[in-house]
């Protein structure tokens, strides 16, 4: 049995249909049509490979989001020194009156 | 005595304390070495000559006053350029952070400074630590000192190379799927990923937060312990920092391996691994048995799915973490006119390189409505299965061993056009990141092409002491003292 028939036989339920333009929009990436086509094809290949995880039976298996059994991390509620605004405003692309400035919000 | 730049950290420390030479001398030695090697290798992005000179002067003043803050005092150390250094450019090798000077130090940087270490500069990496060859840098690739046609591995390739050639005595990298251990293996140095949560991630530019750990590169196992001793420990600024005393990392370095039970990971000794690498690994396993360890086969049945799970989990976390690069608070902003949202989208497309864009798209897709359960959710369950495999294995062995990488260093450009082939170079290292466990790569020899082979020792969570115990025996048995040609032959004595 060759590799492609294995894949069809075990994990046919997961067609990789990617609306790459929508994904790029969600990710706030202004990509050209050529770039969308290239990344779309590459993503298809990678996801086909990633589909292997579908093949593993995981019924009743709890997901792991994190290696430590931690829930919350608290610290003492005491005031401490914070950064001088000038130290980070000087690194911003556009600043006015001690605040970050952005272009217009509405189109 | 040879060049000072070739000493281990511990030997350099002995010389400093004996008054044989000064921290300024050590800094001069690594600076002179860098002046020769950088033109061939491009390991550094930034050399902080002024800050390093001041730190060396301060360390020498401390020694003169009899103040001793420990083994790193006066020692020149390099940092991967994804760790924030106050007032010193920190780019993560990305155009989007070109010229950015952080307003604060990462916790590991603070700890190094407090210990009297001399920070030489910032090293090259795959952009945002995404890659396995240090080819994905916006500032050009780093080369392997053993053969400049080969990659040094990645993503911490620059840091690995500084330690390999003596343009630093040791260095820090970050390891998300093998980014310390894999380049350590490919450049012939020791590289270690600690237990998740024992080294603070505060000030480390985040890639995949549930996997990232900072770890040391060094030229000996004992040096690795000395560095981890300084950078580890609870940090309230990192919410995932373990609030407990760290283990006695070096407590068993001289104990040998008699009485230990060591498992060879079956899945990493066959298909997909270069036969020469398998032979070298097997030979070292036999020598460990000869040294008194009980060496058995151990199986991790789910690891064949670990790579696929990793390449869903890591991109998912990266797509979330890299949302902060929006052209508003720091870094690059596009010249394209438009609304704020259009500004963000053009800024990001201009500022990120192809591998970063690929992973952001992949992660965004894997987290999007309708696909979350099938991809990200399923990958998290596979992560549980991988962890369970490790737990079961550690029920009957003390440590696990394997090759660090499937092959020795590959050629520049060889895998650049094939993302999946590149991803496979992290096959043996990714499982420890998914589990959150410590692991180390120790050089054990050279292959027929004269390229270093790395040997991996993995241990359970917080099992650094036994991991280092075995690593030290591997180091003794291997007797690996070879140095990259570029570290020696081209350096003319003054």
Structural description of this entry:
The complex is a heterodimer of chains A (107) and B (494). Chain A has 107 residues and is mainly α. Chain A contains 4 helices and 2 strands. The radius of gyration of chain A is 24 Å and the shape is flat. By secondary structure, chain B is of the alpha/beta class. In chain B, strands 1-3-2-4-6-5-10-11-9-7-8 form an 11-stranded mixed sheet, with helices on both faces. Chain B starts with 8 loop residues before the first helix and ends in a 6-residue tail after the last helix. The model of chain B is unreliable at 489-494 (pLDDT under 50). Classes of the chains: A mainly alpha (107), B alpha/beta (494). The interface between A and B is large, with 54 and 71 residues.
Condensed summary:
The complex is a heterodimer of chains A (107) and B (494). Helix content of chain A is 36%, strand content 4%.
SSE topology sketch:
The complex is a heterodimer of chains A (107) and B (494).
Chain A: H1 3-10, H2 20-26, H3 33-50, H4 85-89, E1 95-96, E2 99-100
Antiparallel strand pairs in A: 1-2
Chain B: H1 9-18, H2 23-41, E1 44-47, H3 49-64, E2 76-80, H4 107-114, E3 118-123, H5 157-165, E4 170-175, H6 181-187, E5 190-193, E6 213-218, H7 221-231, E7 261-265, H8 275-290, E8 294-298, H9 306-321, H10 340-351, H11 354-367, H12 373-393, E9 399-403, H13 419-423, H14 430-435, E10 439-446, E11 452-458, H15 464-478, H16 485-488
Parallel strand pairs in B: 2-3, 2-4, 7-8, 7-9
Antiparallel strand pairs in B: 1-3, 4-6, 5-6, 5-10, 9-11, 10-11
């Amino acid at each position: 049995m060759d590799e492609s028939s294995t894949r069809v036989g075990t994990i046919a339920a997961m067609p990789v249909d990617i609306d790459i333009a929508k994904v790029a929009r969600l990710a706030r990436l202004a990509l050209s049509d050529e770039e969308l086509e290239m990344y779309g094809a590459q993503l298809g290949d990678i996801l086909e490979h990633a589909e292997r995880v579908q093949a593993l039976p995981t019924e009743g298996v709890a997901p792991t989001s994190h290696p430590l059994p931690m829930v919350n991390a608290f610290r003492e509620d005491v005031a401490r020194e914070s950064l001088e605004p000038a130290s980070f405003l000087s690194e911003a692309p556009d600043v006015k009156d001690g605040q970050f400035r952005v272009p217009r919000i509405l189109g | 005595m040879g060049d000072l730049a070739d000493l281990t950290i511990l030997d350099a420390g002995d010389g400093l304390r004996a008054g044989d030479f000064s921290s300024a001398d050590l800094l001069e030695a690594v600076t002179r070495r860098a002046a020769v090697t950088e033109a061939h290798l491009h390991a550094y992005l930034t050399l902080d000559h002024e800050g390093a000179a001041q730190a060396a002067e301060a360390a020498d003043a401390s020694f003169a006053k009899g103040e001793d803050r420990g083994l790193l005092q006066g020692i020149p150390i390099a940092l991967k350029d994804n760790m924030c250094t106050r007032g010193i450019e920190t780019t993560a090798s990305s155009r989007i952070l070109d010229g950015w000077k952080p307003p604060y130090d990462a916790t590991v940087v603070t700890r190094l400074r407090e210990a009297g270490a001399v920070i030489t500069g910032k090293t090259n990496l795959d952009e945002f630590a995404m890659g396995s060859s240090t080819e994905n840098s916006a500032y050009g690739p780093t080369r392997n000192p053993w053969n400049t046609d080969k990659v040094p591995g990645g993503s911490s390739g620059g840091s690995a190379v500084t330690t390999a050639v003596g343009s630093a005595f040791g260095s820090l990298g970050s390891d998300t799927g093998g980014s310390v251990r894999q380049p350590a293996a490919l450049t012939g140095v020791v590289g270690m990923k600690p237990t998740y949560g024992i080294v603070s991630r505060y000030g480390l530019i985040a890639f995949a937060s549930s996997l990232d750990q900072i770890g040391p590169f060094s030229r000996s196992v004992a040096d690795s312990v000395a560095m981890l001793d300084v950078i580890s420990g609870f940090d309230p600024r990192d919410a995932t920092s373990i609030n407990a005393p760290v283990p006695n990392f070096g407590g068993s370095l001289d104990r040998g391996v008699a009485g230990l039970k060591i498992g060879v990971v079956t899945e990493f000794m066959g298909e997909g691994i270069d036969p020469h690498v398998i032979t070298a690994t097997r030979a070292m396993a036999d020598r460990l048995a000869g040294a008194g360890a009980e060496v058995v086969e151990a199986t991790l049945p789910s690891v064949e799915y670990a790579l696929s799970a990793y390449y869903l989990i890591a991109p998912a976390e990266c797509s979330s973490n890299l949302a902060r690069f929006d052209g508003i608070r720091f870094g690059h902003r596009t010249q394209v006119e438009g609304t704020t949202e259009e500004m963000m989208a053009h800024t990001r497309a201009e500022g990120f390189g192809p591998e970063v864009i690929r992973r952001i798209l992949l992660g965004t897709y894997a987290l999007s409505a309708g696909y979350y359960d099938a991809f990200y959710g399923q990958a998290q369950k596979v992560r549980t299965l991988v962890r369970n495999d490790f737990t079961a294995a550690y029920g009957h062995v003390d440590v696990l061993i394997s090759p660090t990488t499937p092959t020795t260093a590959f050629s520049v450009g060889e895998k650049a056009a094939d993302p999946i082939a590149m991803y496979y170079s992290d096959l043996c290292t990714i499982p420890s990141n998914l589990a959150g466990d410590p692991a180390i790569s120790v050089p054990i020899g050279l292959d027929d092409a004269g390229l270093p082979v790395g040997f991996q020792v993995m241990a359970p969570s917080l099992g650094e002491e036994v991991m280092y115990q075995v690593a030290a025996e591997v180091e003794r048995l291997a007797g690996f003292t070879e140095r990259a040609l570029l570290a020696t032959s081209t350096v003319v004595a003054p």
